[in-house]
Write a structure and sequence with these properties.
Length: 396
């Protein structure tokens, strides 16, 4: 049985016209001999009746904090509605389909409501539906705990649902349908010459997802890599071949850089060794207060790192409590230059710095790993910087 998991995001199922395109994708898969398993998100985005944020707006903030179990039941409704509506569309095209909640599909989680971890997937029901010639339509983003309560697995969780079903069903591949053609060399809203990346490795795409690109959830990449199930990012609205994500690095591209992404709202922190008695224990203290740090550079007399701007007030209060002093630069962006082929290639950092210097862009900080180089710049220069790097490495 050639199983194919097809996940359709909220924009893909938001209107009747778009749902017709979804049906076409499913019919095409059947015509090619696949047994499709469909995963759907809640319809539309905030403001539309059944979107997750719209459902959340129906209750008070106090309940959101005090009763996460109730919140999971509420927001699960969006995906459940999508499953039934997609079954209706399939039925109108002569296809028998069975709507399933995450729990009915066999996804068992822990009881960490609003951000549950998947413990197990029981595939018997889905396989039985497929063997009876019907299509299971599964509500993404959700599962059921061992007590029988609805749970959700965090924002972007429909990607995770699709990935774990693809893994446990040993699917030929997991297709993630969205409103973009696939993974681009850079954000096309920033770089007009950005091009589609046709093939990319799990390791590279994990860097993209982890460093700000929002095309796919990092946990979905992790799961697919673990079980070696190819992921394909496709556009529901057209026939573009999309981006294939697998274990194999593409031999098509000669570029040592695969693409560029970025994260805004970073704050650079500098703390001198003589700033206070808690200097040596500072990172432990920040971890205990759940303040995540990034781009860490440690020198004999100074520590430099970045934090998310949303944590800055908490960080400032903590520094005052510790009777320490620091300097900081707000409104920064972290640019990530990603490419597995840069491993062992000398001169990449030099090219990056020269390209930015030519544009009179000051680099506030750098860091690197075996396939990523990070540069911190002021956010006002981020568009100019990414375009300069995209041109330098001939990604257009």
């Amino acid at each position: 049985m050639k199983i194919l998991v097809q996940k359709f995001g909220g924009t893909s199922v938001s209107t009747k016209e778009k749902r017709k395109l979804v049906v076409k994708k499913i019919l095409n898969a059947k015509a090619l001999g696949y047994f499709p398993v469909v995963v759907v998100s809640a319809m539309g985005r905030k403001g539309e009746p059944y979107a997750t944020d719209t459902l959340l707006s129906l209750v008070d903030d106090s309940l959101k904090v005090s009763n996460p179990l109730a919140m999971d039941l509420l927001v699960s409704c969006g995906e459940i509605i999508s499953t039934v509506i997609m079954c209706n569309e399939l039925n109108n095209n002569g296809i028998d389909a069975v709507p399933l909640t995450g729990g009915q599909a066999g996804i068992i989680t822990d009881s960490n409501y609003t951000n549950a971890a998947i413990l197990n997937v029981e595939t018997k029901k889905i396989l039985s539906i497929l063997q009876n010639g019907k299509i299971p339509v599964v509500a993404g983003f959700q599962g059921m705990d061992e007590k029988g309560y609805f749970t959700t697995i965090g924002r972007g969780g429909s990607d995770v649902t699709a990935a774990i079903l693809g893994a446990r069903l040993n699917a030929c591949e997991t297709q993630i349908y969205t409103d973009v053609d696939g993974i681009m060399t850079a954000d096309p809203r920033i770089v007009s010459e950005a091009t589609l990346i046709k093939e990319i490795s799990y390791d590279e795409i994990f860097q993209f997802a982890d460093q700000g690109a929002k095309v796919i959830h990092p946990r979905a990449v992790e799961i697919s890599r673990k079980y070696n199930i190819p992921l394909v990012i496709k556009n529901t609205m057209n026939e573009c071949t999309g981006t294939v994500i697998s274990n194999f690095e593409s031999e098509v591209y000669e570029n040592i850089i695969t693409g560029i992404t970025h994260m805004n709202n970073r704050v650079q922190i500098k703390i001198c060794k003589n700033s206070g008695s808690s200097y040596e224990d500072l990172f432990d203290i920040l971890a205990q207060d759940l303040i995540s740090i990034d781009l860490i550079n440690i020198f004999p007399k100074e520590k430099i790192f970045t934090i998310d701007e949303k944590d800055f007030t908490k960080f400032s209060d903590l520094i005052k409590e510790l009777n320490m002093s620091c300097s900081f630069v707000k409104d920064c962006s972290k640019i990530s230059i990603i490419g597995s082929k840069m491993r062992g290639i000398p001169g990449v950092m030099a090219r990056i710095l020269k390209a930015l210097t030519r544009e009179k862009i000051e680099v506030l900080q750098t860091a690197d790993s075996h396939m990523t180089i990070w540069c911190l710049v002021e956010t006002s220069y981020v568009k100019k910087a990414i375009n300069a790097l995209h041109k330098e490495f001939k990604l257009g």
